[in-house]
Amino acid sequence: MNDKxxxxxxxxxxxxxxxxxxxxxxxxxxxxxxxxVLEKAETMKKKSQSKE
Length: 52
Description:
Oligomer: single chain
């Protein structure tokens, strides 16, 4: 691939990460998603323990 293209992709990813980090809504969405994943993991763990 072209070096300029790869540089642009990397720069875009870094810029998007910085914008998402500074956005309150983005942080809340990430936090909510993490909580949902943890809750789902706990329910799956409880179900697997109850089957044993």
